[in-house]
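Field: sequence (string)
Field: structure_tokens (string)

Example rows 1 and 2, in order.
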Amino acid sequence: MIRFNHRDIPALTLSDYIPSRHFRTILPELREIPRGIREISVVIEFSKDSTFFRTVLPAFYSGMMYIYGYVHDNDRLREIFQEEMAEEYPGRRIGLFDWQEEFLLVFENGSRTCDKRYVVSVEEVWNLLRNCYHPTEV
């Protein structure tokens, strides 16, 4: 496991890479169903103490620590997934991890040999989940 100091991780604007209008959540049992050809898997992990996001999510997500979804590929994501990040391109994925005061955003290449890490604000993740498509709206 790679050790890092979180103060050294740059920040970015989440909506530049994962705009809410291009993001949809899915139920956990649907993770094995193939995604759209231009979609990238996203996993959002909440800390066990997180209650803030429970007010944003549909009731069927209550108590879940992981929210699964897909984002449509876009120019900003293609900028991230170049060179060694393009390895095993179809298997690339994105993770958002709750650090209470901010979220760690991790872009991983498909072979899981390379990643890029950034921090994003809690408010940006809140806006993403509040304004994206949920299964009851699709």
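Row 2 begins here:
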Amino acid sequence: MPPSCATTITANARSDRSGSGSDRSLPTLRPDASPLGVASAAPPTAAHAPGEHVNPITALVARHRAGSGEGIYSVCSANPYVLRASMRQALEDGAPLLVEATSNQVDQFGGYTGMTPTDFRAAVLELAAAEGFPADRLVLGGDHLGPNTWQDRPADEAMPLAVDLVRAYVAAGYTKIHLDCSMPLQGEVAPLSDEVVADRAATLLAAAESAADDAGIDRSGIVYVIGTEVPTPGGAKETLHDLEPTPATAAIGTLDVHRAAFERAGLAAAWPRVVALVVQPAVEFDHLQVIDYVPEATTALQEVIEATPGLVYEAHSTDYQTPAALRALVDDHWAILKVGPGLTFGLREALYALDAIESEIVPAGEATGLRAVVERRMLAEPDRWERYYEGDDLEQRIARTYSYSDRMRYYWPDAEITAATEGLLARLDEVGVPLPLLSQYLPIQYERVRDGLLPNRAEDIVLDRVRDVLRPYAAAVAPTRAGSADAVHATTSKESL
């Protein structure tokens, strides 16, 4: 059950880059590297250091509940190109940037990335320094923190590990903590009762508050998210046929039992810092289709949150929603929009377009052949896609490359793929990207180059294409007087040229 923030980062720190120029000697991502070439001792003194900053999420939720119509998107990726593109977008918008890691990606043992929470934080801060992004506008979160990774163990083994996980995130300076104990453990039957889920969340909340005290971190700067979505976070594993929003009664029940559990645990004072509830607004994607948001289907959920002071909803799996749907989600109080696979989907589109350009202008024996390298490596190590993509060889090949669920995102850190990617970008900078070919394969980036808005450099083109995925999010979460989905759709359409 892979949670939603699921692309890998590791860092090999050797950058002197600042601003928006091109320099590929930045942190690279590979899952076997630990701990990224950065120290994993005390957390760096930036990105909301203890006692120095009010959590931007707290302020945003207050403004949203006061009628500002604004929200924030959460970047659920550890790909350095995605993170750098996100930082450039947030810089342009003058906005904070929320980046989240998940429990199986980053944990106290290194997760599948080989990184502890401190390591991941240091790597993100290093990228921020390279991009000139202010550390005090960076918010780091932990997503689906709980016993998810240890579902094959009994509760008396899994929960202490989950406690240590939460403590590691808080001690490392993460200030948005999603407490998720919804998964059954060894010997338990799904679904768990609300009371069991809430009692376990209270155990993790106590651990988080204690860890903050032990680390000298002001508790008031830490916010919490409760609840979970169905189906599995990060995109459905199977073809979707129908999807219903979370029933309003279930949302009310989640709130009530969690609040009661926190009170029983002596943690009532922390309840005002529970800022968001994860529910299913009936938005999802599978390999080949997207279920779009229908505001009329969530009227009862909207009424629940409007009657609950100090809270907003958090929407997972918002990837591939239309600009109008994203704006409507924010208008309907899903003020936190999580996006992940859609960003690496855009990255693949950009890199494969440049690969096609290279094949046109470079002799076959001299081309890096990125696309062929990716396909070869995915076939050689199919564990990340094989059980997800059904069908014959042709259907699987199409899914490997084009699926909305983007299982390819796990392969960008591969050493051969990383080398091919860097080689492609370097070669195109060496020979130059002909404008007619840029127009053929990346027409929006062509327009920006022609208008003088974008350098005709391969890496900048890639980052700008990833920003095309983020621009509708940036527009959707911006404060609005009218809160009009039509207005934001017109804005994003204009910005795409």
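free_text_note (row 2): The chain has a mean pLDDT of 88.
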